[in-house]
Amino acid sequence: MINVVKKIDAIVAKICGYMSYGASAMILVVMVIVCMxxxxxxxxxxxxxxxxxxxxxxxxxxxxxMFPWATHLLRHVRSLMLYxxxxxxxxxxxxxFAYGVGVVLFILxxxxxxxxxLRSYNMxxxxxxxxxxxxTWPTRALIVFSSVLIAWQMFRCGTIAIRxxxxxxxxxxxxxxxxxxxxx
Length: 184
Known about the structure:
The chain has helices spanning 2-44, 51-72, 88-123, 137-167, 171-179, and strands at residues 126-127, 134-135. The protein is an all-alpha fold. The protein starts with a helix and ends in a 5-residue tail after the last helix. The radius of gyration is 20 Å and the shape is elongated. The protein has 5 helices and 2 strands; from the N terminus they run H-H-H-E-E-H-H.
């Protein structure tokens, strides 16, 4: 059973890595589009049609593509004012709580987003007015898919934190162990 979970985790990690690369490419594309739009506005007083719609649809995709990879690498941004002063076992307890809440929140996000995804797919819902209209269901599908991956990564990290809490390993041991390829 553990080997199956490790294989699933390896597949999810690869998917998350590729999603992170895709998000980086999307950031580059959005940056180029915005620069071109600003140039066209300034030089020719002619903005590129649909830039706002493209950016509006790209930003959530970029965020949800990066999130699973950040979770996999244990590289979330956090305030360390209190966390840094805690003893190792308290840090692990906070991590267990945070990852548990994360699993619940992202499962709830999938649950809440699923009907909107189906509605936007069935109704061929579009975002934007005027010349450029963008289908919304691909973005909604990517958010649902990414939320499933994030929930898995949170579960994985929570499991590691629980095991480390039971074995009284510190955060540095956890990170070292993670980079040595030990999952669950």
